[in-house]
Design goal:
The chain has 160 residues and is mainly β. It contains 3 helices and 10 strands. It has one domain.
Length: 160
């Protein structure tokens, strides 16, 4: 069976036996391997609730990430629950990537970019760049881990 996803798709992630959260596929980033960009919402819902999709996508964003939404569906980390055309403002989402290996404690070799724009080498992370999201393509299980705990489950260099 072929799995299809498209911009605007909203996905449900079970957090535990009592709660769930949602994210939305908002853009495709040619700068980062033509990968899917998602926005994960902060709101936590009781597992038995069926919130309105417009309410969900109108909620506060917790984080943005690159991932392969189809892979998460195939591996059953999330399920597609609908599609909402409103994907918010995607023009100012900032990502970062370190040119160092993950075992480097503090990197001074950073690259930043906005979706579908050229990466810029900035060396040190200063100013608004400090708010950038990790720009690697994140595996589905790590997306779910961050949705559950607030942090990714892998080692990545820090900037201070």
């Amino acid at each position: 069976m072929r799995i299809y996803t498209k911009i605007g798709d909203v996905f449900l992630v079970v957090i535990d036996d009592k709660t769930k959260k949602y994210f939305q596929y908002i853009e495709r980033d040619l700068t980062q391997l033509n990968s899917d960009v998602i926005r994960v919402f902060k709101a936590v819902y009781p597992i038995i609730d069926n919130p309105d999709l417009f309410e969900i996508v109108g909620g506060e964003v917790d984080f943005y990430a690159h991932c392969i939404t189809k892979l998460g569906l195939k591996m059953k980390y999330w399920e597609k629950v609908g599609n909402i055309k409103d994907v918010g403002n995607v023009e100012n989402i900032l990502f970062m990537s370190s040119g160092d290996n993950p075992q480097t404690k503090i990197s001074n070799n950073w690259w930043v970019w906005k979706i579908n724009e050229e990466q810029k080498h900035v060396e040190k992370m200063e100013g608004e760049n400090r708010n950038a999201e990790i720009g690697s393509v994140i595996p589905p299980d790590s997306i779910v881990h961050r949705m559950r705990t607030g942090k990714f489950d892998f080692v990545y260099p820090e900037f201070e």
